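INPUT
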Amino acid sequence: MSAADALETLLTAGGAELARGLRATEARLAEVAEGHGPELGRHASGTLSAGGKRLRPVIVFLCGGSGEGLLRAAAAVELLHMASLVHDDVLDRAPLRRGAPTVFASGGRGAAVATGDLLFSRAFAELRRTGSEPAVAALSEASSALARGELVQRADAWSASVSAERYLQRCELKTASLFAAAARLGALLGDDSTPADADALAGFGRRIGLAFQILDDVLDVSGPAERTGKHRGTDLLDGTVTLPLILARERDPDLAAMDLRALVSSPAQADAVCDRIARTGALGAAREEALHHVAEAKAALTGAQLPESRGEALQLVADGVVERYA
Amino acid sequence: MSAADALETLLTAGGAELARGLRATEARLAEVAEGHGPELGRHASGTLSAGGKRLRPVIVFLCGGSGEGLLRAAAAVELLHMASLVHDDVLDRAPLRRGAPTVFASGGRGAAVATGDLLFSRAFAELRRTGSEPAVAALSEASSALARGELVQRADAWSASVSAERYLQRCELKTASLFAAAARLGALLGDDSTPADADALAGFGRRIGLAFQILDDVLDVSGPAERTGKHRGTDLLDGTVTLPLILARERDPDLAAMDLRALVSSPAQADAVCDRIARTGALGAAREEALHHVAEAKAALTGAQLPESRGEALQLVADGVVERYA
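OUTPUT
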């Protein structure tokens, strides 16, 4: 059985605590979408129900086990994730996400900015009900990091000099911070966790987030488009310099010497640059980097005192991130 | 001496607790702008230092008196206010605010959405340090209300059927909620306040916020442009239906019958509609409505047990809101 199948079994097994938690999270997200006036409902219910893997809530529940605040935390991290997606779609003028029209496409820029703001606000409203100041601190740090990551990405757009180190810093901000927060919130709000667990599990979340982002960036270059729902080289077209391009530039001096903006001005050209990146072997090297972070994530788990079943489930989550992109 | 002059004296008197609090707030806002990477600093320091009246922090300090958390609360409400302005400028594609280029103008849509998100996040990061769950609750409710107000405004744009009641609901969300939160935070975090004070002072803040928004909307129709920094009828041009137009429609059936979108498609036409609204006497009626809320605000103050000097200062704040638009 693949890790994905094993995880699927874990998630849908009727009696499991995790499956109950995830169902309760869905119900809570639907309540939030419907509970703030028809103006939000119209835009947000589509966004919230469009689903996705709910990977961040899964991490909350598996890191936390049981505890009253876990549902709040699971809803909060997903609301924050959704808020950032809704705003990203404004920046990218994206028409579709997961096959459904984005809030930007259906409601316009104004509705999308405001809907994102409202989802952000509801994330904090959910979490503060736990009464845990460290939990609110973890969420506000992650929320700041997401926005900083977006700013760094804008500042580095089209740059010829983005290093792998700078790229990884951006991934920390944009993606890893919220995975780390999800794990930390689980540990903070779970009934039987210790402060040492919180740090170890946050380290797990962070590494998983890095691997997740790197593999996502590899997929943007490798395709196929059927997997991503968008054509290859979307990042190239908006000037986002990711690890595959950075590593390819190190291997192909001609590519390094070229101005990205001049090189990529149409989807057909982006396709050609993707092929050129692939020919350097950079995709394999980037995948290796991601696998390194997955291994480090698993190693971090040994620092937390988790019941065996939850530890094994988190290993499956780690493997699932890799398999998703295999 | 006018209320504005009296308030100015109050704010700048070197020894006063309020003046110290406001100076500390400025310093804290500058730290936040500089403390989150050059990407934020570039965009946010202009926004945060562009100043304004810092009316919301003034309300925090006057409602709270003394207390360790007041500086956090003052910075938090101003950060949230700034975040909403930065996002509003994206929606309105505004080139200038208070005579300086907006983040939207200098950094583009992406930088402005992300900068607003970061300022939102820092507002919660500031306030959670008070360790007060009711305080974080008040901020997250206000933050949600701001976003809902924006959504309602978008939903009602160009509508011929927006009632005065619906308009006031929108003002509650968009403006009054944050004034109410500022007052409540002051009371929650002030050393000598009671729960009854918090409700009374939140009522004061709410009424001041309503008056503030109504008078701002009157000024958009009455001009002069030198006062507002933008030409008359900006609201009309983007389809925002405000109290002057609502009251004018009740008085001028021909105006009521006309389609706003057809009526206002150029600044010159907006100017003409502003004149037409003014001729109905709607501006005076809208000002009356604002004065009613100022009177109610002052009445609400009697429900709070404040030292005489702070009560008098809050009366000056109320009068100052009116005078600003006189």
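end of record. The mean pLDDT of chain B is 89.
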